[in-house]
Description:
The protein has one domain (about 5-80). The protein contains three helices and three strands. The protein is an alpha+beta fold. It has helices at about 10-25, 30-35, 70-75, and strands spanning about 35-45, 55, 60-65.
Amino acid sequence: xxxxxxxxxxxxxxxxxxxxxxxxxxxxxxxxxxxxxxxxxxxxxxxxxxxxxxxxxxxxxxxxxxxxxxxxxxxxxxxxxxxx
Length: 84
């Protein structure tokens, strides 16, 4: 698994969207898979995420799993552009 960095978050977000869209076209995609899809980006620190996307009655929701996030007291001191 490749971790996402702040520098490549936009590119990886787009790749996740394309991959989920391909899976939705599979014949085994049931309603629970076809109506909402979660696009998981694994990163070292917390990322700013794109807005959810709705297309063809499907909602794509981005989620970030930060494996080494800053503690809230440190993150709160960062400028808004650096935080989620």
